[in-house]
Amino acid sequence: MAPVCILCVVTWLMTKSWILNNILAFSLIIFFLTSVRLSSLKVASSLLTLAFFYDIFWVFISGHIFGKNVMVTVATGLNVPIKILVPLMMAHGKSMQFTLIGLGDIVLPGLLLCFALRFDDSKGVDKKSGYFAATMVGYCVGLTMCEIIVGTFHVAQPAMIYLVPGTLIPFILVARARGEIGEAWEGLKSHYRLEDETMLPP
Questions:
Q1: With CB atoms counted within 10 Å of each terminal CB, which end of the chain scores lower, N or C?
Q2: Cβ partners under 8 Å of residue 158, min gap 6
Q3: How far, in Å, CA of 108 to CA of 184, rounded?
Q4: pLDDT score for 201
Q5: What is the distance between the alpha carbons of residues 156 and 162, in angstroms, rounded to a whole number?
Q6: Which helix (H) or strand (E) holds 86?
Q7: What are phi and psi of 98, to 5 degrees?
Q8: Treating both helix axes as pointing N-terminal to C-terminal, what angle do 104-123 and 131-153 enclose, rounded to 10 degrees?
Q9: What own/partner pairs with CB < 8 Å and gap ≥ 24 does 35-40 have?
Q10: Catalytic option among 105, 121, 126, 196
Q11: How many other β-carbons are positioned within 10 Å of the β-carbon of residue 86?
């Protein structure tokens, strides 16, 4: 596997291919989501709420303070795999145009999704009908709304203003409907990984 990874990195350095950029970016996302775990809805809510206002500040407010949009400048100026490049299908002109998704817009909501999956597992709930499914649907809806607005109006959007309510609200609604809001808020005490369960003796 190591030679393949090295070849991928070297090829990206030489070509700056957007496809290889995305492969490397997704690799970083997978590494982060398999290495870091949130312990409770309390932690997830705090983290995502801070990210919500952080995104708004750097996209909408930073330009009035620093004279330019810092978030957009960094995202477009750094040619490194810290973002997912999504081609614009309706773009005009010969050169390919892209909309950007920062890794934080995937990783931070992804941490809540991972917690939802683990919480489903702890409750013996099918992941297709529990917290994970509801939160994933909310994430997809939020991300789709953001991409439609960016692609249509070509105006930078802080993705977290769509993704934070899109993930937190469905999770909370499911928890309230199941009467588990308090338990979800306090979180999982064992902090186990899903695969750990398969390693336990019968």
A1: C
A2: 55, 56, 58, 59, 60, 71
A3: 18
A4: 46
A5: 13
A6: strand 83-87
A7: -130, 155
A8: 160
A9: 36/111, 37/111, 37/114, 37/115, 37/118, 37/191, 37/193, 38/111, 38/112, 38/114, 38/115, 38/187, 39/115, 39/187, 39/188, 39/191, 40/115, 40/184, 40/185, 40/186, 40/187, 40/188
A10: 105
A11: 16
> Tell me: the pLDDT tens digits for 13-35?
899 888 999 999 999 999 999 99
Q: Which of 55, 121, 126, 196 is catalytic?
A: 55
Strand partners, 99: 86
Question: Is 105 part of the annotated catalytic residue set?
Answer: yes
DSSP character for 38?
A: -
Asked if 55 is an active-site residue, the reply is yes
Q: Vertex 137, ends 25 and 19: CA angle to 5°?
A: 20
Joined tokens for residue 51: 């990210």
User: What's the predicted TM-score (pTM) here?
Assistant: 0.84
Assigned token pair, 3 = 């030679």
Distant-in-sequence, close-in-space partners of 28: CB < 8 Å, separation ≥ 6 = 81, 82, 103
Phi, psi of 195 (to 5 degrees): -70, -20
Q: What are phi and psi of 75, to 5 degrees?
A: -65, -40
- What rounded mean pLDDT belongs to the chain? 85
Q: Which amino acid is at 170?
A: P
